[in-house]
Structure formats: C-alpha cells, structure tokens
Amino acid sequence: MLKKWCRMFPGLAWQVAEARHFVAALLEEEQSNLVDDAVLVVGELAANAVQHSRSGWYRGWFLVVIGFSDDLVRIEVIDQGGDEEPMLRSVTSPVEEGGRGLMIIAACAKDWGVKDRPSGARCIWADLARVSA
Q: Is 40 within 8 Å of 95 (Cβ atoms)?
C-alpha cells in the first residue's frame, strides 16, 4: 500500500453513517462504482462491529483504515473483538433479515479476510479493485 488514512469512531450505531461519509470523501476522485462498493463495504463492516463485537459496548470504538495502491483500495475495520468469529452464513429464507453482510462484501471485493490481533481486537478487510479510466 502506498498510503493509508484512518479514523476512529465511537461504537454507536449512528457512527456507521459517519464511517460511510469518511470513505466516500476519501474516494471522491475515484470511479462511482468503486465509491459505491466501498461505501457499502465499510457500512456493512462498521455495522457488524457495532452489533456483533465489544465495539458496541459502553465506550466502545471501531477504526476504519483505507489503504491505496495503484490497483487496489483496501478497507479495514478494526473492532474490539467478540465471542463469535465472523464468517459467511447460509441464508436459507428470503425473509431472514440478517446474515447477508459478509456475502455482500464477498460479492463486491476482489478478496477479503479476518485477522485477529493479539489485543483481542479483530480486523476485517476487503480489497476492492481500482480500474483505470
């Protein structure tokens, strides 16, 4: 990665929108489909951090890191960890309301993954392809 930008957010549900605005502002010079995918990905990851990790607890936080290389934009959301490991889930019913976030990320991203940190925090990352104009 050539350069990175990051910002920490309080672990509050309304901060997910702030994380999306942060990413959209950083990518405003990029093609609109990349911006749309990046905003969707960070929104899903930030919402998961607030809902499914200790980031959503009192005084919790999550960190959004955006890295730029010539051919990729890497989005990382670092949360405060939780008891369950993030994984793709099988959604068996079209009326189920949850469980599609990581499937959406997998569909948008060139690659994605999870890295546990020694502190108990967790980093979920997604690489989005940059297309030259």
A: no
Nearest to 126 by CA among 118, 116, 12, 108: 108
**In which order are the strands placed within the sheet that holds 61-68?**
3-10, 61-68, 72-79, 122-129, 111-116
Task: Count the residues in the chain.
Answer: 133
Give the Å distances, CA to CA, from 34 to 24, 93, 123. 10, 30, 21
Amino acid at 130: R
Global pTM value? 0.86
pLDDT per residue as tens digits for the range 49-81: 999 999 999 999 999 999 999 999 999 999 999
Tell me the per-residue pLDDT of 84-99, one tens digit each, with 9 for 90 and over.
Answer: 765 555 555 554 555 5
Helix (H, G, I), strand (E, B) or coil at 114: strand
Identify the CA nearest to 45 among candidates 18, 67, 23, 16: 16
